[in-house]
Every structure is written in structure tokens, then in C-alpha cells.
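Dear U.,

For the methods section draft, I wanted the exact inputs and outputs in one place so we can describe them consistently. I've listed the two proteins in the order they'll appear in the manuscript figures. Please don't edit the C-alpha cell lines directly; just add comments below if something needs changing.

First protein:
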Amino acid sequence: MNKPPILLVDDEPTTLATMSRILSPLYQVRIANSGERALEVVMTKPRPELILLDVVMPHLSGFDVLQILQRNPATQDIPVLFVTSMEGQEDEEHGFALGAVDYLSKPIKPAILLARVKNHLTLKHALDFLHDKNLFLEAEIGRRMQENLVVQDASIRALAHLAEIRDPETGEHILRTQNYVRILSHKLRDHPRFSHAMHNGFIDMLAKSAPLHDIGKVGIPDQILLKPGKLTPAEYDAMKMHTLFGAQAIEEAERDIEKPVAFLGLAKEVARWHHERWDGRGYPDRLAGDSIPVSARLMAVADVFDALISKRSYKPAMEFSEARDIILAERGSHFDPDVADAFSSCFEQFVETARCYRDKGVKA
């Protein structure tokens, strides 16, 4: 069985010899006859698990040595037990204030020395075990949270692809729009109207929830969703219902889990309100201006831009610059003016994203 290493520090050879003789049968004893030498020894292997430190020494006192040990992350957790002939209560209080774990009075009594060393090593081993256990638990929690996030992301993508399967012309639409809203969010994070919302957590949750904006299309009949020509007014009204279907589906999910989940709240916003207009002429609720959630205002720009540059059975794909001009022309009517301005300033990033996640229906 390995003997725990301990360090004895004292400028009196007799005291060192006495303590070493008592402790050596049970512990791996190292000695230092000065504070300076103690600071050298403590940095070499095996690093002591306990230090028995004389208080009154020339040059560096025990108090000085302890303060130096406490400032060093490599040694600050080594328990220090002062060994001293000092009897003043103030000196003991000062030592405890510096971080000493105990005092041992001279002359040394073998039974007390052995008991104190054993007790403090037992305590240190217990604390080390708890620390290692906590590190393991933190790592395990982190691993499981990461697994949960991966499952969550996969579930979101699977749900989003349900809408994509129903409407096969959308291709990489969900990936493009997800990246568009992230680009807009980062662009607006320092804007005075948006900085309160655009923290990293919000941006990540919005990007995560964005793929669910068209999930309600699974409730639209094929003869309407897949119609190659222009929709009749009645068919268009039926198509508009996808916003409500999507929001209702997410609400059902929220009720099932019986616990609020932030990204589901954002997903519900973008699903229900991404077709609202800044001037109040959108659907389904005819919201206007700032009454439209920020998430939906960003999603509106992302969704319209991608629809314009994508080929549909009833229209060809539009050039990037032409799509940009249409969105900017709708600044202050369809789109929040500041969001439209942000889109304009990061237009090249939109184009880069569109080309990165291009399908055959998107302009090259």
C-alpha cells in the first residue's frame, strides 16, 4: 500500500527528527529546514498531501509560506497544519484566517501528532474524492446534455422535413432560412431596438426553431399544396391555415411535456406569425409593427427572400439582386425597416448561404 506523502517544515533539527521518526512508519515523509526550501520541495514529486509547518522560522515565517502556497493554484489546496510553541490566541486566529487547517503545539506528543495527521489526511482524501466525483458528474451531465441537444436537433429536423416531404420543391429551404435568421440576428445584436433580445441564447434558440416555421403545411391538402398553377382565393385562404396548424401543433407539444421550453415558444412565434406584415396586412392575425414578435419579423425576411430565389411550379427562380430589390422596396410595408436594412447590409452573406445550400431550384 502506498504511503501518503507529507512534508515536515521546521528550522529545528530535533523537531524534524522527532516528527519524522513518529510518522515515517505510516507516511512518506519529506523534510525541509526553512520556508524557502519548503517552497522548493512542495513543487517536486511526490507533491505532499499534507504540510506540517513551523510558524517561527528565519527569513520566511510559516505565515509567509502559507500565504505563498495559497496564491499558487498548484498548492493552494494542500492542507497546512501549523506546528508551534506559540501560545497566543491572536496568532492562532491569524493562522486560521490565512487558511491553516489546525495547530499542533510543541513539544510534540506522538499520539496527538498521529491522530491529527490521520484525521486531516482522511478529510483531504474525502474532499478529493468528492471533487473528482463532482468533476465526473459535471462531465457526465455535459455529455448527456449534448446527447439531448443532438436528439432535439434531429427531432426538429425530422419534423421540418415532414413539411419538406409534402412540398418537395423546398429542397434545402429549411437550412437556408435557418442560416438567414442567424445572420440577421448577429447583424442586429448591437442595434438599439434589438440589442435587448439578441443575446447568444436567443440567437441559438431562434436558429434552432426556425426550421419549424412551415411545419403546418402537413395539414394542407395535396390538391392545394401541390397545385402547379395559381391558387384561387378560397385555396389561398386554406393555404394560409398552415400558420395556425403549425402553431397549434407546437402548442400541443408544449402541453404534452408540461414544462415551458424556450425554443418551442420561439418556434410557435415563427410558425404562426412569419407571414404577418409590418403594415398590418399580413396573416393570420393582422399584427402590425412591433406587435409582431422579433423572431417572426426576421423569419419573414428570410422566408420571402428564399421563396423569391427558389423555383416553383408556378414561377422561375429569381436573381439574387432582383430578390434583394423587391425586399428593400417593401421596407416599412411588408418588412420591419431596420430588419430590411440589416438584410441589405449583409446581403452578400445571404447569397453565400444560398449558394452553399443550393438545390436545383435556386439561382446559381
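Second protein (the one for the lower panel):
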Amino acid sequence: MDGHFSPLTGLAVHLQQAGYDVRWYVGGHYGQKVRQLGIHHYPFKKAQTVNQYNLDRLFPERAALKSPLARLRFDIYQIFLLRTPEFIEDLTEIHAEWKFDLLVHDVGFTGGVFAKHVLGIKTVGIGVVPLAESDAYVGASGLGLSPRKDWLGQRFLGLVRYLIQGYALKTCHALYNQYRRQYGMPPASDFVFDDLIHTSDLYLQSGVPGFEYPRQRISPNIRFIGPLLPYSKGKKWAYELVRKLSTFKRIILVTQGTIERDVEKLIVPTLEAFKNEPETLVIATTGGSQTNELRNRFPISNALIEDYIDFNRVMPYANVYITNGGYGGVMLGLQHKLPIVAAGVHEGKNEIAARLAYCQVGIDLRTERPKPTQIYKAVETLLTDIKYRENVLKLSVELASYNTNELAERYITTLCPKRPQTIPAEITY
């Protein structure tokens, strides 16, 4: 999925340019993206490709799951755990052809821990979502609960964590341990996603401590590396478009990512909220969903509706960023000093929205279907309450202090020294 693939592209290109022999195992249309980066591509063979484009078609029953917990359990099963044997079969075949030393994978790739055992390689997990490690001060990941350091709060969070991991998601952990036994590994005592973190030789967390909850402890293999962002060639914006942006008093950037195809959730209410504000430009990026329909529905001079927009180019002009809570976009928005309105619940976006509210760099609307009045009020609050601007500026300074890809390379080099490439990078299959 985009949120799991795109953040790794910048790191992959950096490692290749630093002299590593980098190759990428990924399914679906992402293979073409890998080849466009000049990186050798290994496609999914046994593994089923599941992404935002075929998710509803493959699993139509998923749309009927309204509870965040029920959908989380479904996703853990179908998208992550059940793919594990398929991943291992593919990786074993690749390793027989090319004896790679190190597997760098996002946190959701369950094949990492098994590949480490089966193939005898080292692994680097990448946290492309907020740190999901269990801790006495934080709630069970996926519920969007605020941290608590007081005794009573810790007892409450501990009870919730026990109920979620020990009961609601017990079958997920049981399946994970079933696979561990299948591959000759002892059962994990840690919950499945804790074990995926703890068993990595290194776990590189996208983001900074300032955008993370206080914790009683953090595992010694975890390193914050700053905002891990997609590879960008730095395309130039047309002069006419830049000139248009400069004519408005304020600019609102809104997106609901690429997984969410229902524009009625966030894009439509944002356009409705500001359609009668001629000095406010709303820039909406649809991810390719109903772009022309939205243009016909909102034929107003203060709306710019596009399939895709280069955020690095538009964010310096924006005043507020409205999102359903994709982690990469949030990192980029904070890096560009933008206060954020978040309206996301599923796919772990409630965790990101809750952190925005906790750090007071944004407002969590706690819904996926906000009303135009809610959005309008949130934007006004962010623009008039100085604490949000001050906190965003402080966090942007912390984000800028991390040279992300070089820092990641430094950590990776401790596990895996460089060795000469065995094929030219431009050769693809």
C-alpha cells in the first residue's frame, strides 16, 4: 500500500547511491515504480497482492465492518498474517538466486521475522506508522487513546491492553504463533506487533521523539530517524499556478489519501465549508477518485481540484493541512510548519490524529465524516490560537534536525557493511 511503500523509496534510492546492492520485493503496480527508480524488482509470485486498489474487490465484506476494532482484526488477518507463508516461499526462492545479507521491511511485513530465522539473515524493521510498541504509559495501539502516567490511568490502559490483545485480537496472536511453530520457532510471548518490533535486529522509527507519547521504556533496538519521506525529483511548478496561489489570503490543502475512495468523507465537506469564502483557496487532491465530478460539482474560483499534487511544492504556500491522517503526509505537513486538522479512524489513523491533538499541533475531529461546520471551526481555531503555531514551529525544528536517510544508512552499516553490486542497477526484470 502507498503508506507502506512510498516512505521507503527515498531510503532505497539513498542506499543504492551509497553503494549498496539494493533490490526490491513487492507486488502489483509498485513493481513499475521500483523499476522507474532504477532498482532491481522481484515481483510477488506466491504472495497475493493486496492494496488500496483491490482491497474492496478482494474483501467486499470489509466495508460492512464499522467498528475500528473489527476492521483492525480483519486487516491483521487478511492483509498481514495470512500472507506470511506466501512471503517466505517467495523470499526463499529469491535468496536461492541472490544471497542477500539484509532485509529492510516496513513494520507491517510479517515475513521479516520468519525470513530472519529461515534464511539466517539480519533484518531492519521500519516504523512507517507511530511507534506501536506496548508500554505501561500508552494504550493498545489502534484505539487512539491518550497516554496516562498516573497510577489509575496506567491501570486503565493496562486493562484495555489486556482485553484487546488477550481477547479481542487473541486469534490474531494465535495464528502468528501457529506460523512460528510451523517454521520451527518457539511461540512469542509478546503480542504479534510487539514481537515484530523486538525481533528486528534494528527498528528504525520514522518521526521524532517530540511527536511520540511519553513512555516508561523503549526497546534498545529502536532508533528514531526523523521523517521518512518518499523519493522526490523536485519537479518544478508552473509559474501561472504559483502566481495563482499568491492571490489568496489563505490556502487550505485537503487530502484523504489514496486508500479512501469516498470523497464525501472529507473532500466534499471541506469544499462546502469554504465555497463562500472567496479569499480562501481550497486545494484538494483526490488520489484519482472522482476528480472531474468534483470539478463539475464545485465550479468555484477558489477551488483547485487535482488527481495528485506535489505536496513539497504547495505546502510552503498553505496555511492549514486537512487530512484523514496518513503518517507520511502528517510528517511532511509538520516539516512544512503546517497545523493540521485530522479526520481519520480506521487503518490506525486514529493513532496519528490522537498524537496531533496530544502534541497540540493539530485538531483531532474523531470522525471520518466531519460536517463542514466542524472543519470550518477547526481551521479557524488553528489560525487564531497561537499555541498551535508555536508548537508546530518547535516540532518542525526537531524534524529538521534529523538527516533521515544518512542516519538510517549509518545504523544499517553497523549490521551490514557494503559490498560491490553484482548487477548494474538499471537492469530490471
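Candidate sentences for the figure legend, describing the second protein: The chain is about 45% helix and 10% strand. Residues 424-429 have pLDDT under 50 and may be disordered.

Thanks,
Y.
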